[in-house]
Records
---
Amino acid sequence: MGVFRVKSVEQSIEDTEAPEHRLRKDLSALDLTVFGIGVIIGTGIFVLTGRVARDLAGPSVALSFVGAGIVCALAALCYAEFASTVPVAGSAYTFAFATLGEFPAWIIGWDLTLELMLAAAVVAVGWSGYLTSLLESAGMSLPTAIAGEGAAFNLPAALIVLVLTGILVAGVKLSSRFNLVVVAIKVTVVLLVIVAGLFFVKGANYTPFIPPAKQTPAVEGLAAPLIQVVFGISPVAFGVMGIFSAAAIVFFAYIGFDVVATAAEETRNPQRDLPIGIIGSLVICTVLYVAVSLVVVGMEPYSRLSEAAPLADAFKAVGQTWAATLISIGALAGLTTVVMILMLGQSRVTFAMSRDNLLPGWFARVHPKFGTPYRITILMGCVVALLAGLVPLSAIAELVNIGTLFAFVIVSIAVVILRRTRPDLPRSFRTPLVPFVPILSVLACLYLMLNLPVETWIRFVVWMILGVVVYAVYGYRHSRVAGREVSAGKTGR
């Protein structure tokens, strides 16, 4: 079978019972839903809203959130079926291994590693931005050399990553309790933005709701959306095309619901709890996103929205510094949980790959006391801390989006394949209207991918080529599934 050898669902589940690889089952449906909300509400709404409204969509950024939410909803239905049917760590990597084979699984695992690692770094940079804004409100300021987008090394971003790495090593239940408290703070702040902001909304700021299309520096050269370049359209911002370009960027705001699937192996009743956590968190967050974006662009002309801390700065612009301070505190709390859960998801994907020996098996060891994959968690924590300290947010947010959309495409295809190859598997949740919904999900994800900049595609292709090289040099030669096939062949003879 070569590089397309499949790891059966039964074998995937059996591997979770090995003592040295067994994760603790401590999570409930509430924990998963709160995890989802905790990771979804973050940089996308607290940070990216200002940038995409100012540079791409104007007040119609709310429609961009709706469009991105619909794409995520289609993919969420596919994820819910897979996660409840194959409750194993690894998310899309595990799903691909059970349907498409080892090499496609490796590619998607490699992709997820990049996606979640960079996403955590991006959010940590956003966390640092809100910390800087909060300190400035209190009359203090950090040196620009160690904080902010232009810092030589963003020290606050790196430090928060290292602190959260320690919490993740200490256990998933501790992480979920910490997350519950912080999510409560974050949702309260989001509701505050909606309610308090309504008193400062000016109707004139919504006109025109969809600004006329025009050429801007934000879509010049390699920053132009690929679809406009491919079809020979002069790259423009705003207008209808601007809404879709913005949707491809604010899609980052929804990244995280798929992380819920990576915790499948640590869930008490995955068949019931995973669909609730995945779909429930997505619906709640979509409603909050649309409401917040409408309020923020109504409070201040979209052309004057800030990039570092748009929500807090919008309240400062109308003289409500108290609200800006509360928002900064809430954003700090909220972005903290996002970094933590993204790192949790990333460590589980890499853990699953290491357990299959596609990466060194040494990383798949579980801590004897805490029951967490501590080795890979510590390693990835250090890598994310370095990225957060050195790489500006704007350079990597789009790369995270293309990786996530690619994962959604694979999962949507895999649902249809598993329905055909294993109709006998018990499915507590079934994606409706198969294959129509998965096909629609694939097309919608591909369309958003085409709306991402050319430079993002170049970086993505380079990362994929590097992944192929790593697989050829290490993964293919050490594969645990390949070893089982060889052993089975010898036994048969």
---
Amino acid sequence: MPRPDHLMTLLGTAVLYLGIGVTSLATAGEADDWRQFRGPNCSGVSQSDLPLPTHFSATENVLWTHELGDGVASAVIADGRCYCTGLLGDTETEGTFVVYCFDAATGKPHWQREFPTGDLPRITRPNSHASSTPATDGERVYVYFSTLGLKALDCQTGEDVWEDAIEPPNFLLGWGAAASPVLVDDLVIFAQDDDLNPFIAAYEAKTGSVRWRKERPEMLGGYAAPVLCTADGRTDIVLAGSGKLKGYRPSDGKELWNCNTMLRTVMTSPVVVDDSIFISIQSYGDTDRHLKPALLQWKDTDQDGKLSREEVPKPFWKKFDKGDKNKDQFLVDTEIDAAFQSPDNMVGGGRTIQSVRGGGTGDVTETHLQWNLDNRSPSNLSSPLAVDGRVYVVKKGGLSSCFNADDGSTVWKLKRVHNFGEYYASPVYGDGKIYLTGENGLVAVLAAGPKLKFLAKKNDMGDSILATPSIADGKLFFRTRNGIVVVGNGE
């Protein structure tokens, strides 16, 4: 599913590390930009003090709109330009992937590029093939599409700069791609955890040359975005995945540490405040539920309690054969998990909201886990928001919860926000306000604080929304299922 929620200008101060200055792309002159998924360091927190609207809709306080085609990727904004993506044509089998560049203030089109997708793989709705949020450094915009790979386009003209035709991901349950590039100094970081060849890689932003690439064979399909965390004078790239939260060295991708506190399936992204990493996860089933129940539920077409080779996607046949120990052409019982899940990472389901201190070396599970909650608050799709000493989450049914960042103690738990339904978009914050966007297109606005206080309960954007909103220049950019609606205070 998209972290559509689904995966990414990174926050921080300059840190010199092994010859690389790991810095934020949101410098003082760029504080109003929103250059990647969830803005600065994928946090969902706007660094600007410009006022943002409280009341708005598809017709109220609208500054501009534009049709984009099908999509669930967020808009990114830099240097007064807004970049969006969409899919036109037959969005099930093939179509045209479009990258748009607009004037962020007026919506005037600057350019658009169209790319035939070729044959499209199966995905699970409500995911979209146009699910990957771009990233931009103001010189180039970096976009990913599963059948086209990673592309860098010139911000002024839209012309090709470089590309890497990354092999399309494969998901046992057909979720589909939703990974998004993020930026660290002169690097484009792209992490794609699928069920076959999960990896994280760093590209030279100017040339597309691969600086480093690290395989992640212990991982199952997931959509966490890489984030930066500075602790003890060192800045690491942090990436959550099946069973493990890991820290990588930006200069060469060396794995520095791992905290073994994650669950089987990780579709949400962590957020960082100072040296603390906060993440909330819901992975279906209990701690003993591995892959087998899900695969039997969705892939055992004749419901005989076992998997035949033909019931498994063809790219996984080699794994099937390796797991079929007795060579009877069926996977049964423990063979199912052993075929597709790493024996060194046989983690199950559950739910958790936790805080992990960054830094360290090797296995930091016993030393760096600061607090860990097992309750019903986490969403499996919507990432947390950490601001002003509190961690906010929202989940299906319009249930919101809030916890103290220091110790995980409850501020409020499972209180309704008057908008029942699914929540794929993650919360975002700006101007003292928290914006909670439902899949039905209704947006609740909360006052950030220790009590659940509504500023607006139902701002109707007129279309389904799975993409996380973007904030820049005193405006909110809502990527709806079919277009973009930009709202402001109308001054």
